[in-house]
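hey m, so remember when u said the tokens were messed up on ur end? i reran from scratch. heres the input so u can diff it against urs
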Amino acid sequence: MSDADLEEIRKGRLAQLQQQQQGGAGGPGNGGQDEQRKYMDRALSHALEARASILSQILQPEAADRLGRIRLVKESRATEVENRLIMLARSGQLHAKVTEEQLKELLSAMAENNERKGAPGGKIVVSRRKGGWDDEDDDLLDI
């Protein structure tokens, strides 16, 4: 199942949940919606299982652990890396399991690519006050 299929399933599920919240849950006429929800849940779980299966086949345990830690910190970055790895595997560019060092190299290459594109969330800029203390700040010391 491709990433586009996964995204389509997610969007359908989200729309369904929003519709349930607006229209209220329950009622006798909800039989078709329940079946549709079950179908969407099964399709989503099947897609996630297929994705996990592919990743377990192409990642060494250390690399999988690192990707899991990345997912804890920033899920969007982990998903982006997973998508790239799956794409490389499907195109036949991976000839062996990905090691932790190769995963680090991929992460740094992706970070450089994002910096060149000017993607948000890259660097943290700290702006400090200039000129030191103001006269108004001396009043705070009297408290």
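this time it looks ok to me. The helical segments are 3-23, 31-58, 61-73, 75-90, 100-117. if urs says something different then somethings off w ur setup not the seq
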